[in-house]
Amino acid sequence: MSRNTMGTVLSLMMVLLLEPQRSHAQTATPTPLNVCCHVVTGTAWDSMPSYDAWGVVVDRVRHLVYSTDPTGNFLYVHQYDGTPVTVLTGLQGAVGLALQPGPTPGDLFVALRSPVQEVVRYNPDTWTVTGGMLVGGALRDLHADSDGNLYASYDSGDVLVYNESPTPTPVATLSGLQVPDGMVRSSDGFYVMDTMNNRVLRFGVTPGPVYGTPTVVATLTAPQGVAWDGNNYYVTNNSSYNVYDGNWNLVRQCNLPELLYGQDIALDETGAIYVADRSTRVHKFGGCITPMPTPPLNVPGHCYIYPSPVRGGRATVCYLMAASGRATITVWNEAAEKVLVVGDSKPQGDQSTALDFGKFPAGVYYYQIKFTFDLESESISRLNKFVLVR
What we know:
Strand 11 and strand 12 (159-163) form a beta hairpin. The strands form eight sheets. Strands 26, 28, 29, 31, 32 and 33 form a six-stranded mixed beta sheet that branches. The chain folds into two domains: 3-27 and 296-389, Immunoglobulin-like, CATH 2.60.40; 38-286, 6 Propeller (Neuraminidase). By secondary structure, the protein is mainly β. It is globular and about 65 Å long. The protein contains one helix and 33 strands. It has one helix spanning 3-17, and strands at residues 38-39, 56-59, 64-69, 74-79, 84-88, 94-99, 108-112, 118-123, 128-134, 139-144, 149-154, 159-163, 170-174, 180-186, 189-194, 199-205, 210-219, 226-228, 233-237, 240-244, 250-255, 262-267, 273-277, 282-286, 303-306, 310-311, 314-321, 325-333, 338-346, 349-356, 363-373, 378-380, 384-389.
C-alpha cells in the first residue's frame, strides 16, 4: 500500500474513533434457494471449439474475457458474447490468471505451470511483456488486489504473497493448505479455496499483505474457483457453482449438466457468469443472478453498495435497520475529506438509500453509516471502500 493510501486510512480511522460505537447482535439465518442457471444462448460461446479451460478472468474496463488452456499452451481472448479477439500461443502450461483491478486498464498476469514455472505480466493493449518472475513450484492460480499485492497458489500447499512490481518479490507465505486453488480478497478478508481439505479459509487483512492464523469459514466439497461481486461469493465445485452471502450462508445453488469440471469462475458487470470447464471450454451462464443483487441483510450494521464498481452518477447503499430510526451515510474521498452526507429516517428491516455521484470525479472513496435509533441507541457500520468509474 502506498504512503498516501496508508495516510488516508489512518486519517479516516482517527475520524471514526471520535464516533460512539454500539453493537446489536443478531443471528444470521441461511436462505438456501435451488435456482438452476442456464447457458446463455445465441452467442459465439455456444459453438466454441472444445479446449482444456483452466483459468478465466473478466476485464471490465476493456470488456474482454481471458482464459487459459494448459494442454494447448494457449491464452484466449474473447468479447463478452464469445467472439474471438486473439490467441496467444506458446504459453507452456498456462493456468491461473489475475488482472490488475481498478478503473483504468490494468496488466494481466499469467501463471505458467510447466516446464518453466513462472509468472508472465502482459499489457493487454499491445500484448507486450511488461514483467514477470521465475518461481520454484507448480502454480495453480493467481489473484491481484487493489493494494498492489499479487497472490499465487501452489500444489505444495502454500500461497505466496508478492509485491506487484515488474519483478515481483515475495513478502509473505501462507502455509499448511492442501492443493489450494482459487483466491479472492474481499472487504473483510483474504479467502483461499483449500480444495483437498474441503474448506474455505479466511486470512485477516491489514493495510498491507495478509497475515495471521486462518479461520475456517465454510466446509465445502472440493471448492475450486471463487469470485466476489461486492456482496456474494461464487464458488465452483465440479458440476455446479454455488452462491454464498457475506457470512457464507448458501443463497443459490446451480447444478449444471453442461458443466463437467468447473476450475475457475469470473463475473462481468452485467451479472453474467463465466466458468472455465477443464473438460470442455468456458461456459457463459445467466438467468438467476441479477447485476445488482439485494439479498437479505442478516446482521445489523452490515451494508454494501451497488453497482460495484459504481458507474456513472447513481449508486444505492443497502443496509439493515435493527430498529426504526435514522441512517446517516458519510462519504470521504481518498484524501480523507468528507464529500457527502445523506440522512434518511427508516423503519426497522432491510433498507436502501440512493446516492448521487454525478459531480464527483472518478477515484477511490470510503463510506460508513451511522445508525441513530428511536430507542436512543446508536451503532456505526464498518468503513467500506468503493471505486467510482466514468
